[in-house]
Write a structure and sequence with these properties.
The protein is an alpha/beta fold. It has three domains: about 5-55 and about 465-594, OB fold (Dihydrolipoamide Acetyltransferase, E2P), CATH 2.40.50; about 65-220, inorganic pyrophosphatase (n-terminal core), CATH 3.90.1640.30; about 350-460, Diaminopimelate Epimerase, Chain A, domain 1, CATH 3.10.310.30. Helix content is about 40%, strand content about 20%. Strand 5, helix 7 (about 155-165) and strand 6 (about 170-175) form a beta-alpha-beta unit. Helix 15 crosses helix 17.
Length: about 600
């Protein structure tokens, strides 16, 4: 697909060329929708009435047969055998959102079946990621004969051997890429296995656990309602773990969002209440920015077991007590996040190395390990470069890495592995440990590796623009259809639009305590149709509008709820002076083909 690219200051706007416009015209007529909506569908690979029907009307019948996953039959039989023999099961999961939702889901299901069970979450700081020896010993102490790992275990070779030696079977439910060999577990459920033909390769860890539950429910002919009450937890994991929201994941997320309303899990309802969330509808973004940070805060600040306790709470009273504690953890997390971000930015400001580097590699003594990953993301917002944040204690650096589009940071770390004690992760995020004495050498080598893997242009953030859209085409009926593109997430992102030649309609103003945001009241030069909008951190551009300078806007559409009144508004991602309007601070348009 050809893409037009033009640059504004520090961001590149990349306007997609329309795919197969002749099919778009046909689809617009068949569906009775606006041409721009039909073109969005075609750009997303939806080219027929039937494909559009499936997209707009996902069905639980679209879920894949769990037995398509390698080892699923073995895993189902082993869990049912434990039920038959009254064997105790340990549910073991990671300390992040995907892991804790997985544990809450599986433990609740086993409790529903009256299976003797317990759960275990490793301590982030004492045990680290993955299956720990302490966890295996805990299973033995509890008399467990079966361990089900969730969101971890695919590389737990030694720990699985340890469990086997203690007479404990292990079922691994993971979604991370396996190594060259698999642990010698009783069953290994992972759609990423090279010998697994399961159609959806991008399930979350909780999603893999859900397929095991689905396999048991279908094998035993149980009421499907028992199964679908867990989709709220699966959907939180899908959002938090940033997995593609297409195919089966989109079905799971669609019904999971409905399930949050239908089942009113006390723990989730309590978290929304503590966050003072009052919207009538819930989106994936709400789960990502409201629920997920609070669940994560338990493991970052204290212990993730508290998050599981909240998610399995059976009464609102019990949930509210735990939620209040987690809210304190989250406040503590935010304060540590803010303090560490400021300290990191200050360290960078006084070190000339960062002015020419293609990466950010920064360290500080005593920074809280639970927030360094968040801080790495904050630094990318400030300086768009691959980033690693280390905290030092007793001569050992523990680091968390975040990448930018186009750089596999795990591959980059592999090229620096001679300076690391250990590392792991994936293309966009990773963790590592290193001796303090290696910091300077690692910083130089990592930056050299980054320069070898990406181009300088890739250090400019890109906004992918789906279509140019005139205000005249924005109507309540078209927005109603756009809403049905949700749930939004990777590979099914919220459509981004471009509007050219926008001018002030007399009501634009700076807002916020420091007047750093813009409340927009704009129309296009060729039209009287006005639109309201919000542009965060763009208050400095008010002078353009007040001098009638035309601007181009990149935006998404959203509903604004204010005092029980709902209206459409622009959520502006970026703005620039329109072509032909120049200033020393505004670069001219650059057109290229990619």
């Amino acid at each position: 697909m050809e893409i037009n690219t033009f640059t504004m200051n520090e961001k590149i706007w990349r306007l997609k060329e329309p795919r197969k416009p002749h099919i778009s015209v046909q689809l617009s007529q068949q569906l009775g929708v606006s041409p721009f909506i039909a073109q969005l569908l075609v750009n997303n690979g939806i080219e027929s009435f039937e494909a559009a029907k499936s997209y707009f009307r996902p069905s639980l019948d679209d879920l894949h047969n769990p037995l398509l996953m390698t080892d699923m039959g073995k895993a189902v039989k082993r869990v049912l055998n434990a039920l038959l023999l009254d064997q105790k099961i340990l549910v073991y999961g990671d300390y992040d959102v995907d892991g804790t939702t997985s544990v809450a889901m599986m433990y609740s299901f086993l409790r529903e079946l009256k299976v003797p069970s317990a759960y275990y979450i490793p301590d982030r700081y004492k045990e680290g990621y993955g299956v720990s020896s302490d966890g295996i010993l805990y299973a033995a102490e509890q008399g467990c004969k079966l361990i089900i790992t969730l969101d971890c275990g695919i590389k737990a070779y030694e720990r699985v051997e340890q469990a086997n030696e203690l007479g404990i079977d292990v079922i691994i439910c993971d979604h991370h890429k396996p190594g060259d060999t698999l642990p010698k577990a009783y069953a290994v459920l992972d759609p990423q296995r090279s010998d697994c033909s399961y159609p959806c390769k991008a399930l979350s860890g909780c999603g893999v656990g859900f397929k095991l539950i689905q396999g048991i429910v279908e094998d035993q002919g149980m009421d499907p309602e028992l199964l679908f009450q867990y989709l709220d937890l699966v959907t939180i994991s899908i959002g938090a773990d940033i997995v593609p929201i297409i195919g089966e994941n989109r079905v799971l997320a669609t019904f999971g969002l409905k399930g949050i309303h239908a089942y009113q899990r006390p723990g989730i309802a309590s978290l929304f209440a503590s966050a003072k969330f009052s919207k009538k509808s819930i989106t994936i973004s709400d789960l990502v920015f409201i629920i997920a940070p609070r669940i994560n805060a338990a493991g970052r600040i204290k212990h993730a077991t508290k998050a599981v306790e909240l998610l399995i709470a059976e009464t609102r009273e019990e949930a509210d007590e735990i939620s209040a504690i987690i809210e304190e953890y989250n406040s503590d997390r935010k304060e540590k996040d803010k303090e560490t971000t400021v300290a990191a930015l200050q360290a960078m400001a006084v070190d000339p190395w960062y002015s020419t580097s293609w990466s950010t590699v920064v360290q500080g003594k005593g920074w809280h390990k639970g927030v360094i990953g968040i801080v790495a993301s904050r630094l990318i917002e400030a300086h768009y470069k691959p980033t690693i944040v280390f905290t030092e204690k007793n001569g050992i650096l523990v680091g968390s890495a975040r990448s930018i589009e186009g750089l596999d940071i795990h591959a980059a770390l592999e090229m620096c592995s001679d300076l690391l004690e250990q590392f792991g992760g994936h293309a966009m995020a990773a963790g590592m440990t290193m001796k303090f004495e290696n910091f300077e050498a690692f910083r130089e080598k990592f930056d050299m590796v980054v320069r070898s893997l990406i181009s300088e242009e890739m250090l400019i953030p890109v906004i992918e623009v789906d279509q140019e859209l005139n205000f005249d085409d924005i109507t309540p009926s078209s927005y109603k259809i756009l809403r049905q593109f949700a749930p939004f997430g990777p590979e099914n992102m919220k459509p981004v639009f471009l509007a050219r030649n926008c001018i002030d309609n007399s009501g634009s103003r700076a807002v916020g305590d420091d007047r750093s945001h813009l409340k927009l009241d704009v129309r296009q030069r060729h039209s009287e149709q006005a639109m309201q909008g919000i542009a965060f951190k763009m208050g400095q551009h008010l002078s353009w509008l007040k001098t009638n300078t035309p601007v181009d806007l990149v935006f998404t559409l959203e509903e604004n709820e204010w005092r029980e009144r709902v209206s459409l508004q622009l959520q502006v991602d970026d703005m620039k002076k329109s072509a032909g309007q120049t200033s020393v601070s505004q670069s001219a348009w650059e057109i290229s083909q990619t």
